Amino acid sequence: MANFLETIFEQLHRADSRVVLREIRGSEFTSVSGNELLEQVQSARQFLRGAQLRPGDRCALLGANSVRWVAVDLALMAEGAIAVPLYSRQAPGELAGMIKDCGARLLIHSESDLAEAIARIAPDGTRQVTFDEVFGKRSAAGAIAEPPTNRAGNDFVTIIYTSGTSGEPKGVCLTVNNLNHMLGCTTERLDQLMYQPGGKAIDRVFHYLPMNFAASWLLMLSCLTRESVLTLSTDLSKLADEIRIAAPHYFLNVPTLLERVRRGVEEAIAKRPAPIRTLFAKARDAWQRRRVGRGNTADTLWLALGRKMIFGQIKRRFGQNLRALICGSAPLAPETQQFFSMLGIPVLQAYGLTETTGICTMDDPRLPVDPGAVGPAISGIEMKLSENEEIVVRGPHIFAGYWNRPEATALAVRDGWFHTGDQGEVNVRGNWRIIGRIKNLIILNSGHNIAPEPIEDRLAQKIPQAHNVVLVGNGRGYLCALIAGPVEASVVQRAIDEVNGELPHYRQVRNFAVVAEGLTFENGMLTANGKLRRDAVNARFAAEINAMYQARAAAV
Question: How confident is the model at residue 105 (pLDDT cuts 50, 70, 90)?
Answer without folding.
Answer: very high
